[in-house]
Design goal:
43% helix; Gyrase A, domain 2; membrane; transmembrane; transmembrane helix; 4-stranded antiparallel β-sheet; 336 residues; 6-stranded mixed β-sheet; single chain; PilN; General secretion pathway protein GspL
Length: 336
Amino acid sequence: MFESQQNWELFGYDMRDLGRHFTAAWRDFLWAYDSPVRARLDEPVRLQSMDGVACYQAGELCTGTGADCAAVLLPEDLVLSRLLRLPLAVESDLPAVVALEVNANSPFSADDTGYGWRVIERGEQQLKVVLVIVSRSAAMTYVAQEYGSHDPLAQELWVDSEGAKVVVEGFGEGQRRERYKRRLVRVASMLGGAALVVLVAIAASAGLKKVELGNVEEIAQRTQMETAEASRMRAELSQANEAIAEINTLQQDHPSPHLELARLTSLLSDDAFIERFSMSGTEIDLRGRATDASSLMQVLTEQADYGRVSAASPIRRVPGQDKEQFHLKITMGEPG
């Protein structure tokens, strides 16, 4: 923020005009012809002209002909129309600028002057504004002659200029604006009520969350104590698992000879016997006799528990017997 030419400015905007810009923005958002809010909430108007009757809403043609508000389209010969090109900077003061243009260009007396305006184009540098000026007495004379109405508040007066419908102020448009204002208040009240309900729901949720937080903190403290005990038990379990793993490793590296003897006893047939059995770690040295030593060696080779079975010396027949002498080296396979 810095001071430039005795005005407080921020990013090129005079901060003293901030409220005025804010008000103008809300005015355009709620009351401009192209406002999305007005397009939804504004009262439809039944427009009478020499070409017939049409229905308009927020200055745009709409379907249907049923409307409580009535308007009369003034002919071009009763209207003084001007197209103003104004800098974009005057947008917040547009009503005052238009009033100055009316005072400078109206050929009628101040009491007899009626006017209306509408922004038809908003560019990057300038605004295009349609300004229409009428004689109030001449306009009412036309309405009385063509439509039989002598009350200026009974209908609105519209003008078709530059392809846009412009409302002349000071006639029956006040009733429609009051209805639109009441709708705005009602919608704002509904939105405020909805926001209040949301706030109450958020507050209730926050209260419930606070209660839940207290319960969670209590559970957390209890869990902390249980966790400490669980950590101690886990440490003891880890030590036990390490001992078991060590025992399993020892069992894998040094299998039980008794189990292998029992295994060989079940594998050998009745015509075979063992003369010598020795075991060192996973290596088995086996000597014996059998009627068919080759078949015996084949049986041992097919065992999944034995990784490798080899002959330490050639198989030979025992003299004077029907037995064969064998000497085998057996290596235990992976435990499983």
